[in-house]
């Protein structure tokens, strides 16, 4: 790395006030992003352990059992599997398959990193395939940044590993690993001799496989999606008696579905809006149960979603980067238009004693879910109860104000091909476990729903029993904030269900569900803070839930443990800790740099091992392995016996990747980046709520948080720095956080290098502050959040003196691009420039699930769509040039380019100036980011670097609605 020198033209930044050539900006940005070492952070991490003899194991306790605590135990042998981008210490953008071992007798020093190694010494020769359109779009939905490994599955019980890399699927076993054999040993790599400890990988020859999944009952069975069908691969097991390497025998590949081409049907792949707006990317689920027939065959089941998009409008995206006139069709449901329809099906097949797949049958519900429950258009989440007795499904209505959680008896799936329409079928009603309603705002989906292991063995309900039951953990906002709840439900057993016989051709029953009785519900967490929605982990042996939350502060999440059932206590215990004072002192940092943002990456309940990630504004993410312990609370002991309340805690075992100072990682040929200031601004807001009879107003306090990056100029300019106000502003996102966000910090360093301050703010409508805070934008997209940004900008300038309010540019992409356009149109005098990337222009042309969640149906709330449309404020765009810069990708399948083109056409007709940058091959995320950033720097050079020139005031257009007025108070 070079140090900053005045003679180096590439690093001329703060000290230079003249505009620079575009090529200079591009070279600096390209060099900066290339010089920023990829941190090699692990992904797809799995823990596989060899529990010590004293570790608690066995079946989960029943509700009446006493919980015996797990006292501190010796560290078990453990292997971590993960995809990492730092192979052999060399940074890379391509992920590799790595492992790291923890040996009880060979633990490294507490501050040292585990030794990570490639798991495969020699993989089969892979010819990297061109990424399929489906795979490319899935990467867009999942926001995947790196190439190489795109999926990794590990069956920790059998050691089966499934890795998708370069568009090709490998299957192998790490099956000789144990306490006394912690590392695979390289041996002769010939066709007959597999690696000692790692079997030679088998290539599964399926074109463009997606979302592969190992059967939990048989690791030699793998299901996946290819094109529009669900595919099964049967990998031949090893034959020890013959000495034949299993990888030499190709897998058996069969289609579990055979859907007609060009019919807009797909199996195992969720519809676009389910992936993009509900974050569900998988559309099939192995049943965790198998049976053996009288002939010795094993029976397996796979539940899958069949999606019909025939009623969804097609949008055509031009492939204008090529010489041809190709158009790329996308089924894209716009607000108020038809959605895809989905139902669930069950495929049953047998594996014979000679490992042949036979008796493949597709079983259907007598009536599709969308006909049984027509008010619920979205299949949000799906799975199986732990013993496979029931499938469960979470459904949402169109505007997402109602969610249903249902159980589906597997017996309800029938083989319709063997039935005629007049045949009678026995129908068991679906079992409703829970209904949530939020008529005022909306219900957020999450990934925390977890069913508990039944206390009785699978299918052990006594014959003739009157009732069945289940327990599950769920996150709900019923209190106004996301918190954990433990539900216990009961319903009539199959004997007592009101089953009925109906002709297959009959209309669906009018009462397709029965309501289970909620015997008990325990709220487990409390307070005006949020449990984060990403995931939870259960330790059923100790009745503990591990989760992430924001109890201490909205910006710094921590990891907690809370008891349920017999371990039900009064509080959640914080497990994560901050940086020790002595480390900060050795790094020359102040004590306030020690607060960390934590998350839990993986947990192995058998051994109690977990991996936590942590970072902050001065430290890159670190990943550490911990051991979970539970000890009796001093107040819960009686006659030396635990009474059910325990104090969980964790002890660090080793680092997988230690923290690195951000200052040691950022490009050093640029000006150093100082940590951002965390800003807190409090306002008084007038809240309006419509009751059944009148409009109620109330004044309340509003606290907003922001970050301010500033250049290393001492002293700062007397009027403050020219400032880039970086915005997102939309619902479901928290931009201001206490963690280290790689892309944000490198962008901030580049801008600060050229003398710009960077301001961020999370306003009303953003995530993780409760239902009411998010709900301010209901029916008012583009109004309260923009007003908050303006107020925060002015208050931050007043408090710090570091922002020159005469030289501020607003800049954002996606929803942030929409915010930038609305700011240009409504607050043209507040900003001297507006930069909008991939912006939404008119919500009537955005997708159903997102738009209707916040604005309702266009037919019911047309005024909300008018208020939120940029096209309603065209006269307010400034007449100055340069002022407005817009960029968009030509193949953006999320916010279609037609949003920008419709705006440009109208700006042309009104004589409004703008600068436009088009990236024909890019989707929603601009691939040519170095070029775009250089364009932005050049634009800022011409707009806010120099002191302002007096200009005629432009028209400031307010929203045509009744908005809450926000005033500043200290």
Automatic annotation (TrEMBL):
Domain Peptidase S9 prolyl oligopeptidase catalytic: 746-944
Recorded GO MF terms: dipeptidyl-peptidase activity; serine-type peptidase activity
Region: Disordered, residue numbers: 50-70, 949-970
Coiled-coil boundaries: none
Pfam families, per the entry: DPPIV_N, Peptidase_S9
Compositionally biased tracts (Polar residues): 959-970
Residue span(s) of domain Dipeptidylpeptidase IV N-terminal: 254-576
Name of this protein: Dipeptidyl peptidase 9
UniProt-listed Gene3D superfamilies: alpha/beta hydrolase, Dipeptidylpeptidase IV, N-terminal domain
GO biological process: proteolysis
